[in-house]
Amino acid sequence: MIEQAPKFEFSKKVVTNLQESEILSTIKSINDDYLYWDKVKYKKTKFKPHELWNIVKLSRLLKSDSLAFGNYTFKYVNTDYIQKVVHFFDMNIGGYMGAKNIIPEEDKTRYLVSSIMEEAISSSQIEGANTTRKHAKEMLRKEIKPHTKSEQMIVNNYLTIKHITQNKLENLTPQNLLEIHRLISKDTLETKSEEGAFRTSNDIYVVDHLKSEVVHTPPHYKEVPDLINELCVFFNEDVDKDNFIHPLLKGIIIHFMIGFIHPFTDGNGRTARALFYWYLLKKGYWLTEYLSISKIIQDTKNQYEKAFIYTENDENDLSYFITYNLKVMEKAFEALKNYIQEKQKNHFKIARFIKIPNINERQAQLLKLVYDNPEIVFNTKEIENRFNVSNYTARTDLKGLVELGFLEIIPVNKVKRNFIKSIHFNELLKKHKIV
C-alpha cells in the first residue's frame, strides 16, 4: 500500500512559510510533477518533511477546483504544467493547421490502421492479455478467429475502437456504455450474463495481486446507476456554467471515474480507456486516433496504478491522475512523431518499387514487405485491413502482382487463397533495376 500522508494542519506559520521566496520554486516544481507525500518527504529544504507537506497542501488548496459525483467530492489543481500541456495539445492534436501537418495526407489511412491495432493490443495487455504484438497484428490483419481469452480480448478491443471511431459524435448514455462493455468483454468473462451489464453485488475489489492487498473498494452497487447517469451528463455537456473544465482534463476525469465507480465485474480498465478515447474524438482532438496511449500506459503500468491510489489517498485529488495521463499523452505524441519519421524514411525506399511499370503505391508497399520478409504470406483479408480498402481492391492488387510475376497463389481450400513470394521475384527486381 502507498504510505498515508500526514494530515494537513493549517496554521499562520504555514501561510508565512508559503510566502517565502526561496520555497516558491520548490513548490512549483513539486506541483508541476504533482508529487505525493512519498516523494515530497525526501525533498531537501530547510523545512521538516511534514512542514513542507503542509506548505504543499496549502498551495494546492488555494488553487483547487472541485466537482461532485453522487456523494463523492473530487478536486483538482490547474498547475502551470497542466495549463502548458493542454495548450500544446490544443495546437497539436486538435482541429488546427499545425495538427493537420503532422501526418501526410496520403499516409493517414495507413497510420490509422496501425495505431488502432497498437491501442487494441496494448490496452488488452495492460489487463493481462498474453500474446506477442507480431502475432496479434497478424491475427487482426488476417481476421483469424481468436483461440484464447487473450486473443479474444485483443479482437474485442480492436472492434470496440473501430465502433467508437464510427460513432464518435454520439452522446454517452447508460445504454451506449453497456454496449461498449459488451463489445469489450465478449466471450472473456466467466459469466456470460455479465457482458454489457452493471454489477449487482459488492463482491468487487481492486487488488494489488503482487501483495494481495485491496487498494480500492468501489461504491455500493446500488449507487452505480445514479453515478453513471451523472457521468453521462458530465460527458455530454459542453460547458459547465459554474466551472469550466478543459476537454482534455474532462476526458482524463471520465477515465478515472470508470475506474473509481467500477460499474462492471470485469473490463473496467479497458472500458475507461475506450471512453477517454471516445470523448477526445468527440471534442475534435482527431489526432487521438493516431496516438497509442495504452502502449505508454503499459510501459509505465506501476505509475498508472499509483496515480489512481494517490488520488484516492489524498482526499480524491484528481491532479495526480491528470498529471500522469498528460505525461503519457506527451510521450505518445512524441512516439507518433518518431514513428512517422521512420515511416517517411521507409517511404523513400518504397519509392524504388513504384518505378516498376503498372505498380500502384499499395502494391509497392507489398513488394517492399516481401523483399524484407521473403517468408511473408498474404491473404485478401489482410490487405483489406492493412490498407483499409475494399475486398475488390485488395483482390485486384494481389491479382496484379501475380500477373506481373512477383507473387504466386497457394490454394488453402476451394475458396481461400494465400499469396507468397514468386520464384521469379528477385529476377524481376534485377530486370527493373530495383536491386
Automatic annotation (TrEMBL):
It comes from the Bacteria. Keywords: ATP-binding, Nucleotide-binding. InterPro entries: Fido (IPR003812), Fido-like_dom_sf (IPR036597), Fido_containing (IPR040198), WH_DNA-bd_sf (IPR036390). GO terms for molecular function: ATP binding. ATP binds at residues 206-216, 266-273. The active site is at H262. Residues 172-327 form the Fido domain. Transmembrane segments: none annotated. This is Fic family protein. The lineage of its organism: Bacteria, Pseudomonadati, Bacteroidota, Flavobacteriia, Flavobacteriales.
